[in-house]
């Protein structure tokens, strides 16, 4: 490099130091962050006692299990498996319908443009937030203790945890409606209830239906594992098969679960398109 | 009434009849499906009527017995907060362990997803076969629920957090891999062509042309997944895969009512805190992913 050019570079470096890479301070920060990250990683690996030896042993155990899984076989109790799968779908369907029906009035109560009593709306929403923070499996376990083993506990767990989420989504949908239609109904002499029925409900119903369908799809996934804690469905079957190490049947159940979820998703998409057409994106 | 009005009225009535008939058919189908579902899931009126009061009773019992006069008493005073949370030190440790499980699993799953995302992105995949293989592999990984992975991995890796971490990581790989691949597919291809034209290899082009564009987005997805995984890690202990879930399972199955509500409160508080924190970080990153 010739002297004048080097001089120019030096001048630019002084004028625009950030264009020439990170400043020493930035570099120090990055090094510190990297060191902190590595320290955390080492601590976490030590905390959980993760060593190459353990990973290797586990992997060889896993290979043995996978080898036993092939070929998947329904086993002798294939009727129980099919029944469990149907039970899971039924639990998901019933739980979703109950939650969707309960969430309509609750959603209206949580919407800012319907209920103007801030304290009521605020406390209702916080209760929903708290309920949403509790995982479905925890609800299932609690309901198993409360109403006993079986699919009823699963239905109640799905319904309770979905009511919280669906109410919030419904409330948001109701808050986003076009107000002019409700105002029109009121101006024509309609009561407040009529304004909700003819001015707001037709706008939000397609959105509500679409969301309920999404929840049915996601509940099918959840319902297939709730049985692990005793709340009915295919989860119970898979947990039992794993306990007695019938790995080929476990593989069959997993494949069945994946296929069922796929079919439900596909059906849900079809119904959704038919119900709402092009109205709700 | 004029003829035109009469025709209009008739058409309106016919259209209304058609809509009502379709609605009635839909309602009948729905009702039939509901009845079948209720029968399948043993949702008998008698069972529900007997079960709901018991459920109410159960959840009422979870509420702690707090008394205003002794609210701030020591851990030996009945009716005080300290009595309710008398094992908070142990639970705090377990919560920290749970959050760390989620973090490690997110990191491991994210790293695997990053490697698989490039072959699984249509625009940069080195060949049709690697694209298909990566896509189907990611799909297979994410369709199996975490808890099923955990059930199996507990046999292979033994009871404890390691099985839980690997279970969450496996599911995370599938879920994040798809999102990462979609982010890569939306990247601007100009820099890619530039690196390739300058003689860069495939890996160099991925690293230098695509990664800088998508990194904020990927980080945002990673944080979002971390939030999900904290929830997952809090229940994966139900099947013996470590974390606070193991303790929660114990107190629920032994009916230590007040401890159940104390642990649940802790979990919800930590989940909400982590959500808020990660939301703040995501907003600073400015990626596209939203909750």
Description:
The complex is a heterodimer of chains A (281) and B (291). In chain A, 80% of the residues lie in helices and 0% in strands. Chain A has helices at 3-15, 24-47, 52-69, 78-110, 118-133, 136-147, 151-175, 179-187, 192-226, 234-243, 247-276. With 291 residues, chain B is mostly helical. Chain B is built from eleven helices and no strands. The radius of gyration of chain B is 27 Å and the shape is flat. The interface between A and B is large, with 58 and 61 residues.
Helix and strand run of chain A: HHHHHHHHHHH
What CATH calls the topology of chain A is: MetI-like fold
- Overall 3D form of chain B: flat
Rg of chain B, Å, rounded:
27 Å
Main sheet of chain A, how many strands, which sense, barrel? none
Helix proportion of residues of chain B, in percent? over 70%
Q: Give the strand content of chain B.
A: under 5%
Label the structural class of chain A: mainly alpha
CATH classification, class level of the largest domain in chain B: Mainly Alpha
What is the C-alpha radius of gyration of chain A, as a whole number of Å?
A: 28 Å
- What is the CATH class of chain A? Mainly Alpha
Outline type of chain A: flat
The count of strands of chain A amounts to 0
What is this entry, summarized?
The complex is a heterodimer of chains A (281) and B (291). Chain A has 281 residues and is an all-alpha fold.
Essential attributes:
heterodimer, A: 281 residues, mainly alpha, MetI-like fold, B: 291 residues, flat
List the SSEs and their pairings.
The complex is a heterodimer of chains A (281) and B (291).
Chain A: H1 3-15, H2 24-47, H3 52-69, H4 78-110, H5 118-133, H6 136-147, H7 151-175, H8 179-187, H9 192-226, H10 234-243, H11 247-276
Chain B: H1 3-40, H2 45-62, H3 81-84, H4 88-117, H5 128-143, H6 146-157, H7 161-185, H8 190-197, H9 202-235, H10 244-253, H11 257-285
């Amino acid at each position: 490099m010739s002297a004048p050019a080097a001089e120019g570079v030096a001048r630019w470096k002084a004028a625009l130091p950030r264009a020439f890479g990170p400043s020493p301070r930035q570099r120090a920060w990055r090094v510190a962050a990297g060191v902190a990250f590595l320290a955390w990683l080492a601590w976490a690996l030590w905390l959980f006692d993760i060593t190459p030896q353990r990973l290797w042993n586990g992997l060889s155990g896993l290979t043995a299990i996978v080898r036993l899984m092939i070929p998947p076989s329904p086993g002798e109790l294939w009727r129980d498996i099919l029944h469990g799968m149907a039970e899971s779908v039924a639990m998901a369907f019933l739980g979703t319908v109950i939650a969707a029906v309960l969430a309509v009035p609750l959603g209206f109560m949580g919407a800012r443009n319907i209920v103007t009593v801030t304290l009521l709306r605020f406390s209702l929403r916080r209760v929903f937030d708290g309920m949403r923070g509790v995982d479905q499996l925890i609800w299932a376990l609690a309901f198993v203790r409360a109403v006993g083993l079986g699919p009823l506990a699963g239905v109640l767990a799905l319904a309770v945890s979905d009511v919280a989420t669906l109410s919030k989504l419904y409330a948001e949908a109701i808050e986003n409606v076009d107000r002019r239609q409700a105002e029109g109904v009121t101006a024509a002499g309609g009561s407040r209830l009529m304004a909700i029925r003819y001015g707001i409900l037709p706008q939000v119903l397609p959105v509500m239906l679409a969301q309920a369908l999404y929840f049915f799809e996601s509940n099918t996934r959840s319902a297939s594992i709730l049985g692990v804690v005793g709340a009915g469905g295919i989860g119970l079957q898979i947990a039992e098969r794993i306990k007695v190490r019938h790995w080929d049947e476990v593989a069959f159940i997993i494949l069945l679960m994946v296929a069922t979820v796929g079919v439900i998703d596909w059906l849900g998409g079809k119904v959704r398109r038919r119900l709402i057409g092009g109205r709700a994106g | 009434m004029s003829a035109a009005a009469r025709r209009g009225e008739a058409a309106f009535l016919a259209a209304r009849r058609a809509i009502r008939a379709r609605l009635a058919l839909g309602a009948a189908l729905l009702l039939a499906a509901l009845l079948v579902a209720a029968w399948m899931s043993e949702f008998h009126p008698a069972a529900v009527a007997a079960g709901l009061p018991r459920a109410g009773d159960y959840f009422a019992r979870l509420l702690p017995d707090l008394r205003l006069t002794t609210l701030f008493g020591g851990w030996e005073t009945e009716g005080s907060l300290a009595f309710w949370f008398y094992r908070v030190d142990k639970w705090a440790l377990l919560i920290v362990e749970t959050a760390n499980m989620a973090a490690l699993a997110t990191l491991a799953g994210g790293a695997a997803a990053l490697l698989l995302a490039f072959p699984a992105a249509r625009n940069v995949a080195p060949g049709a076969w690697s694209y298909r293989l990566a896509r189907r592999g990611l799909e297979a990984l994410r369709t199996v629920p975490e808890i099923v992975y955990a059930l199996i991995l507990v046999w292979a890796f033994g009871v404890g957090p390691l099985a839980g971490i690997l279970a969450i990581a496996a599911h995370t790989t599938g879920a994040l891999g798809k999102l990462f691949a979609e982010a890569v597919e939306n990247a601007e291809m100009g820099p890619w062509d530039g690196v390739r034209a300058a003689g860069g290899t495939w890996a160099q082009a991925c690293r230098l042309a695509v990664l800088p564009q998508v990194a904020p987005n990927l980080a945002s997805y990673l944080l979002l997944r971390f939030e999900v995984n904290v929830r997952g890690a809090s229940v994966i202990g139900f099947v013996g895969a470590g974390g606070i879930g193991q303790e929660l399972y114990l107190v629920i199955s032994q009916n230590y009512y007040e401890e159940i509500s104390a642990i649940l409160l802790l979990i919800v508080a930590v989940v909400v805190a982590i959500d808020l924190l990660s939301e703040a970080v995501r907003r600073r990153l400015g990626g596209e992913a939203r909750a």
